[in-house]
Amino acid sequence: MQGAAAPAGACSPCPPGGAERSCQKLASAPIAPCACANSISRRGHLFKKIAITVTLGALSLTGCSAASSAGTAAPTKAASPTSSARAASPASTPATSAAAAPAPAETTAAAPAAPPAAAPAAPSTLPAAPVAAPAAPAAPVAAPAPAAPAGDGTQAAAALGWGPVLAGDEFSYAGAPDAAKWGVFNGAGHAGKGVRSPQAWSVANGVATVTGDAAGTTGGMSAKFGQQKYGRWETRMKTNVRDSEYHPVLLLWPNNNTSPNCAEVDFAEGTSNTAAMKFFLHYACSGGDFQTTAATPVDTTQWHNYAVEWTPAGITGYIDGVKTFSDTNPAHQPTVGMHQTMQLDWFPDGTATSPSQMQLDWVRVYQ
């Protein structure tokens, strides 16, 4: 005898003949589906039948019907379109039931990757070359330096306190050397070589200049002032680029140059070595031992102050206020008064001679 129809929302009765029944209601189903498990013992074997159909995004459970002898399954009912996809409750399937096919995991569609930034198109034309900065204006060519030196330089007179100038010449005039002060040589050159001519001298721009030419014509002159025994002399002098055959000389010459008064004090004498200046003290007229000397490296083409100090204690030489020579032997001292002389002497060596010059800025004599 069949039971009454199940009310809406309740489990439909399972077909008769089931030894065991199990019904579970799924509240979300519009029609109460049933899950029936019929356990039938046939020939000592237990068969369980569970029909579960899972669809993507919705769960559909087949209805329970009487087991027919033909074993055909009851038609399935699709889930309502409004149903949410849910996983079956663990209680709905016994432990021995086959595993339900897992619902695919929800995936969020990945945002399309941003297309790579296009490389900037190469310019159709190359950029213009940078405009070169205007060249710096050429430095103006310096005007030739005046013959007069810029200053007096370091002086022995100032460094050693020699006191006021007694006599001298600042060459603050133009033309020939002052005849009241100088005796200009006119005759044969040193050791009879070349000629000493008054025309070799000139004074201009505060400087006295003596020129030696390629043929050996040169000049010299002797001071008429400062003829004294003992005293101090200082002269500012330079040579332009000179031939090694021309030797500039600043010296003290005895007023009476006769034997045995053959003393000579060359307190600045150039030699064939144009990068040095020598000091010579000649204290005898002849003989193997008649002089003492010293050499000082110096650029003779630049202005320098050359000085000599003669006292009863001896003779001392200076360049730019620095002592470069000393002889205190009494036997080497001059015995008569002396005066200053300047010469550009020619020492020919058989080769061609280049014109050369010696220049004087000032000559000063002290007590």
Can you lay out the helices and strands and say which pair or pack?
Elements: E1 40-42, E2 45-47, E3 52-55, E4 58-61, H1 156-160, E5 167-169, E6 182-184, E7 187-188, E8 195-196, E9 201-204, E10 207-212, E11 217-218, E12 220-223, E13 231-239, E14 246-254, E15 264-269, E16 276-282, E17 291-297, E18 304-311, E19 314-319, E20 322-327, E21 338-346, E22 356-366
Parallel strand pairs: 8-11
Antiparallel strand pairs: 1-2, 3-4, 5-22, 6-12, 7-8, 9-10, 10-22, 12-21, 13-18, 13-22, 14-15, 14-21, 15-16, 16-17, 18-19, 19-20
Structure explained in plain terms:
This protein has 367 residues and is mostly beta strands. It has two domains: 10-98, no CATH class; 156-366, Jelly Rolls (Sandwich). Helix content is 1%, strand content 32%. The chain is built from one helix and 22 strands. It has one helix spanning 156-160; strands at 40-42, 45-47, 52-55, 58-61, 167-169, 182-184, 187-188, 195-196, 201-204, 207-212, 217-218, 220-223, 231-239, 246-254, 264-269, 276-282, 291-297, 304-311, 314-319, 322-327, 338-346, 356-366. The termini are far apart. Mean pLDDT is 73; it is low at 1-127 and 137-147.
